[in-house]
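Record format v2
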Amino acid sequence: MTVSPSVSINNPIYPIRWQEDRVYLIDQTRLPIERAEVEIRTSEEMARAIETMIVRGAPAIGVSAAYGMVLGAGEIPAGTLEEFRSKLKTVADRLRRTRPTAVNLFWAIDRMLETADRTTGDADDIRRALWETALQIQEDDVRTCKAIGEHGLAVLPETPEKLRILTHCNTGALATAGYGTALGVIRSAWSANRLLKVYADETRPRLQGSKLTAWECVQDGIPVTLLTDSMAAHCMKQKMIDAVIVGADRIAANGDTANKIGTYSLAVVSKAHNVPFYVAAPLSTVDFSLADGSGIPIEERNPSEVYQVGSTRICPEGVDFYNPAFDVTPAELIAAIITERGAVKPGDLKSLGSS
Ligand SMILES: CSC[C@@H](O)[C@@H](O)C(=O)COP(=O)(O)O
C-alpha cells in the first residue's frame, strides 16, 4: 500500500512516501540535477538520511523521524512488552541525535513515544498505533501548511502592483510534507493572483535556495529570480522587494526565531529599508519551553560545506572555518509570525496556544 498525504493540493511534490514497510525520500542532495528517491529500510538509515540532509527542512525532518520510529519499532525482536518499550526509547534517542535545531524533530518523536505509552495491547498493537500516528503527522502537516498559506495572504502588504517577495533557504513542499510554510504563503499568493515574482536567496553554503526553492518555483510556473545572499540590501534600496517571508526551525516563546544562517542579516536589512519581514511556521515549530532565542541550540556542520564547492576546494590551505547552520532573528525585527491558527505579532504567540 502506498501512503501519501490524502489532502489534495496543486503541487504534486511529496518528499516522504510510505510504501510496504519502507519509506521513500526524494533525495534532496541530488536536486535539481536529478529527481530520485532513496529507499529507507531501517531507523538507522532514516537517522543517516536526516544527518546527511537527504531529507531536510524542519517539518519534513519531523515527519521523517516519526516514520523512523515506525521502522525502529518493526526492528525490535520478540520479547517482553517492557523490553519493547525500552528499545523504542533507544530508537528515539538515536533519531534525536541527528540534528539539534529544528524542534519539529523532537516534537514528532515525543508524539510517537506518547502514542506508544498510551497504547494498550501487545507490541503489534503499538506498532500499528505508531504507524497511524506517523501518517497523521504527515497528513496534518499538509493541512497545516495550507492554513498558513491562507493566513499569510491576509497579512501580506496591500500594494498597487502585484507583490515581489524575497525568501531564504527552502521552505516549500520539499521542506514539509508537501506544500510549504513560507513558500506555501508564496504559493497561495500566486494562486490568488497577488504575486508578481519571487526572489530566492541562493543560501550558502548548501544552496537550498538555488537548488531547491528555484526548482520548486519552476515546477509551479512561479517566476523566480535567483540572488546571491549578499544582494538583498541592494535590491531593497532599488525598491525591488515588497516583503520578505522565511520559515523557521525553532521559535522561542517571545518570538525570537532560529532559521537558516543568513536569515538574521536579511531581517536587519529589511528593517533598515522598511520592508516587512514575516516568519511562516506551524505551531509545532514553537518551543514554549524557551523564554527567548538564547537557549536555541545552533547546529554546526562540517566545514567542508564552506571550503568546498562539490569536491573542489575553493580556498587556500591554512584557513580556519566556522559553519553555523542557523542564526536567531530577534523578535523585534519580525512583523508577524504566520501560523495555522492565524498571524500574530511575535509577542502574542502564546495567545494561539500550543500545537
Ligand atoms: C519549512 S522549513 C523552515 C526551515 O526548516 C528552513 O528555512 C531551514 O532553515 C531548513 O534548514 P535545513 O538545514 O535545510 O534543514
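Residues 56-59, 102, 169, 171, 175-176, 181, 208, 247-249, 259-260, 325 surround MRU (CB under 6 Å).
The chain has ten helices and 17 strands.
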